[in-house]
């Protein structure tokens, strides 16, 4: 940055030197025929331009490095902050919009930092230097030439405020555009099967038109700002020519001074124009910062207590005490006074109609959300008093919608290993550990048959694998984690019967010796659970094992019958 500051001053000095050299070029060389001064001017002009070029390069490189560094820091901080936010935030914000803020908004910010940094540094210094030169040459002529520019302050400032509003609209429309693209690509199979590509094209075309309109508005403001500065510059030069020419004619100033003055004034035009254009660019940057700070100012609803301590898990017993969960947007309760004990090492299943609150219970145990009332304890410790990292270290999760990451099969399995140094370069011991987990998850056979075995790239979200294969990799990942508490959320709901049977066997193997909480739609998959809790409208309405619940003839029996005796 220090080098950039020195370069900025050298640019300003070399630009003013160019204007100063015009006076002896006219008065001493052309008028008086001074050959010595001819060599001074002849060598001085290319020297001034060379100094300006080198200094320009130094300053631009310095600002580019600073801008890239600032944006890299901002990108890392924003991602870290996003990862600290809770699920409710991500449910409110489309993935495409968040991606847009991390990529497009930050790239716009980088452009703003580098371009305005150069303008504020080099152009302000150059303008100050040139105005000083003008005043020293002829202060009366300077007042005539510069008096038009203060008039521009109000309209340029008004255009800047307008640019900020339009830039905000532009960034929000870009976020919506990204969200639609993400949705269309992710759901391309549904779009094709349901024959709605034309509908998606129409919807996207509407957003593209809005995007076009927003871009036109922003660029129109920049063009109008540039036009005002061009007009003012033309008027300024005309006034100087009229007044300065009159003074040359009546002999109160020399032709050399007049030409040097005109040169300095013309050289001042470029920084004035850039500074005027910078107003709109700055407002674009401010609009981006508004969007970024809207995220950074968001505080997670789930926070660690100031005196939070690591969770000490010995057995993994879970207890929910009079737990209530209310939705902020509705008056309906997701859970209404549930008390549930899950002894260490037992498997408890949660069943019931959709919307009964089953998944909410899992989210509470994992502390992906907090109850409105009551408390959740593990081994007698309220989990709100534990550090989140220590809680999540003791919990493994397998869901219906399996999340796999772009990379190899091995990397995805070792994703569950808390002590893995680098899943991309696993040790022989880690590879053996992953293979053992895959065998226990009934995944080794199909993995070995892949083109590169465990080192096969599975593509984004594991799209090159079948649903059952993805599910078994997720189970292997949970096995590698070896957590004492296991949460299963509809883990076999989307599978065919044969695949379900194989996955169910792997899940039972995974659950051995662990406290397991299962959310299930297919009742046959939980008939051997130690206890089954039937939820309805946020309450536990029945509880017992499979046979006793069937004998009772209540909601569980009706659900069982509705599935054809499962």
Automatic annotation (TrEMBL):
Entry keyword Coiled coil: no
Membrane topology: Multi-pass membrane protein
Entry's localization field: Cell membrane
Keyword ATP-binding: yes
A GO term for molecular function: ATP binding
Limits of the ABC transporter domain: 318-562
Name under which the protein is recorded: ABC transporter ATP-binding protein
């Amino acid at each position: 940055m220090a080098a950039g500051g020195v370069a900025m001053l050298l640019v300003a000095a070399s630009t003013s030197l160019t204007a100063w050299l015009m006076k002896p070029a006219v008065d001493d060389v052309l008028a008086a025929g001074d050959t010595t001064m001819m060599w001074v001017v002849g060598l001085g002009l290319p020297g001034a331009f060379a100094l300006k070029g080198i200094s320009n390069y130094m300053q631009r490189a310095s600002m580019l490095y600073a801008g890239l560094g600032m944006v890299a820091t901002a990108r890392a901080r924003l991602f870290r902050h996003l990862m600290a936010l809770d699920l409710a935030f991500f449910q409110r914000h489309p993935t495409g919009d968040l991606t847009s803020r991390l990529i497009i908004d930050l790239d716009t910010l980088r452009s703003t930092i580098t371009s305005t940094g150069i303008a504020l540094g080099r152009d302000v210094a150059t303008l100050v230097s040139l105005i000083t030169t003008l005043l020293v040459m002829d202060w009366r002529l300077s007042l005539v030439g510069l008096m038009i520019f203060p008039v521009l302050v109000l309209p340029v400032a008004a255009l800047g405020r307008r640019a900020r509003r339009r830039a905000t609209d532009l960034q929000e429309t870009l976020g919506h555009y990204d969200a639609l693209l993400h949705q269309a690509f992710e759901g391309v199979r549904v779009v094709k099967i349901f024959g709605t590509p034309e509908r998606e094209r129409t919807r996207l075309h509407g957003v593209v038109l809005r995007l076009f309109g927003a871009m036109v508005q922003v660029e129109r403001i920049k063009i109008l700002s540039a036009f005002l500065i061009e007009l003012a510059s033309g008027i300024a030069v005309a006034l100087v020519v009229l007044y300065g020419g009159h003074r040359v004619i009546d002999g109160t100033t020399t032709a050399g001074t007049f030409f040097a003055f005109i040169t300095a004034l013309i050289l001042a035009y470029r920084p004035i124009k850039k500074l005027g254009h910078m107003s709109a660019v700055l407002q674009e940057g401010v609009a981006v910062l508004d969007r970024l700070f809207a995220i950074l100012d968001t505080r997670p609803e789930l926070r660690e207590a100031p005196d939070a301590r690591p969770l000490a898990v010995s057995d993994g017993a879970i207890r929910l005490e009079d737990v209530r969960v209310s939705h902020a947007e509705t008056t309906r309760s997701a859970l209404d006074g549930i008390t549930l004990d899950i002894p260490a090492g037992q498997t408890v299943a949660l069943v019931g109609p959709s919307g009964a609150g089953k998944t909410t219970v899992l989210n509470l145990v994992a502390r992906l959300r907090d109850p409105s009332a009551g408390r959740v304890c593990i081994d007698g410790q309220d989990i709100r008093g534990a550090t989140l990292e220590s809680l999540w270290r003791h919990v493994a999760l397998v869901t219906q919608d399996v999340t796999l990451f772009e990379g190899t099969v091995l990397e995805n399995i070792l994703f569950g290993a808390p002590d893995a140094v680098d899943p991309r370069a696993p040790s022989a011991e880690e590879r053996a550990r992953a293979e053992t987990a895959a065998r226990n998850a009934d995944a080794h056979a199909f993995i070995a048959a892949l083109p590169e075995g465990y080192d096969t790239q599975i593509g984004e979200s594991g799209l090159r694998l079948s649903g059952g294969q993805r599910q078994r990799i997720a189970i292997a990942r949970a096995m590698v984690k070896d957590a004492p508490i296991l949460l299963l959320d509809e883990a076999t709901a989307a599978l065919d019967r044969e695949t379900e049977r194989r996955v169910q066997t792997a899940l039972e193997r995974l659950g051995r010796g662990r406290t397991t909480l299962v959310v299930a739609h297919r009742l046959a998959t939980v008939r051997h659970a130690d206890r089954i809790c039937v939820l309805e409208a946020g309450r536990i309405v029945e509880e017992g094992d499979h046979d006793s619940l069937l004998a009772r003839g209540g909601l569980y029996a009706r659900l069982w019958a509705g599935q054809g005796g499962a």
